[in-house]
Design goal:
The N terminus is likely disordered. With 156 residues, this protein is mainly β. Strand 7 and strand 8 form a beta hairpin. The chain has one domain: Sandwich (Jelly Rolls), CATH 2.60.120. 10% of the residues lie in helices and 49% in strands. Strands 1-13-4-10-9 form a five-stranded antiparallel beta sheet, with no helix packed on it. The chain has a four-stranded antiparallel beta sheet with strand order 3-11-5-6, with no helix packed on it. Strands 2-12 form a two-stranded antiparallel ribbon.
Amino acid sequence: MKYLSIIFSITVLLGSCARTDLFEKNISFPKHQWDYANKPTISFDITDTVSYYNVFLVVRHTDAYHYNNLWVRMKSIAPGDSASSTQQFDLPLASQTGWMGTGMDDIYEHRILLFRRPVKFMFQGNYTITLEQVMRQNPLEEIMNVGIRLEKVRQQ
């Protein structure tokens, strides 16, 4: 009887887990240094052109990072397009009370929403995003990795 209740509990737990539609890819930097010449490129496929997505920049750094923000230039290329679209972001990482991301020991991770409204990808296919650090320091020290995270917005 005890095993039957355990199996029932596991079945209920697994059945209640919601599927999360997301994509995330992070690129690590050697020696935790992001050099101007190191421009991580991330590609992802979009098949659903009806849904909207929240787009995040993911940054992981050590507590020894010297600034309270990060300037990033993002170049994106849509499927079938040869020209890139460029946007620049000043991303806050700290407030007056400390780091704003989640931390464990001396490592902090930030998931920063890049656009106020969810994005709708107009074309099916492969999108490419290239990230550049445009801070005044080169290399930018204590940045462990950066990446892109896409979360499909749930219809209510």
